[in-house]
Amino acid sequence: MRIFISTGEVSGDLQGSLLITALKNQATEIGLELEIVALGGEKMAAAGASLIENTTSIGSFGLIESLPFVLPTLKIQRQAKDFLKKYPPDLVVFIDYMGGNLPMGKYIRHSFPQVPTIYYIAPQVWVASIGDRDTQEIINISDKILAIFPEEARYFQNKDANATWVGHPLVDRMQNFPSREAARAKLGIADDVTCVALLPASRIQELKLLVPVMFEAAREIQTKMSEVHFWIPLSMERYREKIEKEVQKYQLRATVISSQQQEVLAAADLAITKSGTVNLELALLNVPQVVLYRLNPFTYWVAKNILKIEFPFASPPNLLVMREIVPEFIQDTATPENIVQAAMELLLNQQRQQQMKADYREMQQFVGEIGVCQRAAKEILEFRMPEFRI
Hints:
six-stranded parallel beta sheet, 19 helices
């Protein structure tokens, strides 16, 4: 069986790699020979996919922000279409990445109408009050939707889509994280050092929009706490030079590190982070966090005033329970002053720390049981081969 998986950005590459490992495990159990071709990244390639093209570096979020990536995206999609014409897939799996996957899905539907398509980790249209257009397009290109949030599954089911909740794949990934003690020992963090993780960027636009405000807040925290040290795990090595220059500019006591994000997250007393998948990782590790995000001002204005888009929350922990359990500062509220105030409260107020950890425990009941990726892989293979019951 040849499976084509289409995703983009750093987070999609991670989720794709976890799914590929599970698919290969399930295929081995039933004696199925599996070939996986993909639009993805290095993690997916390491898990066993043959990459048609790498899409981790062309991700963006927003109108203005996406413009530099329009032509590269079109070029990659043209390459993928040429490949699929020569080597038609038996099954297609989309992972997130709406900007790339909606047009790819339409092409698949037109060119390979008999090929089953599954959307795993659908774009979060269920969160935004933006109308039904994107929702309907996702449903149109998907024979089945594998939802990672309970509310997401209910949303698509109410739209008459074939949707199943499988749980969030990070539940599986968390089993590989070290303990706090082991992580601090490996990184050489002394017991009397306060470790704050700074997680500013997985997209190129975030270097410009998030790093200055986050690092300004970090500098202020540094003046208030002599024992603090910042750790900055790189989502992509090519961001190192820019981030190291900013560390020097703001004179931070910081370590920029590659390939050890799990250790940094597990070791942290606090994280100051962009909104995204990492928020859920921190919540599952019971690490207090402050979340921020900024878009290009024009993009934000259009979204707010023309498109009338409203998000109740931005970070996954808050979305899971539909209330604020971690502080979020979006756009104009994402100021160094607000971030510092929230961060210092979490660092110094033990009662506030305990409340957040109690909220995390409530949230954890909505992420599903261990075995999410295996369940997703089972659903995918059984959908294509109903005669097999894995």
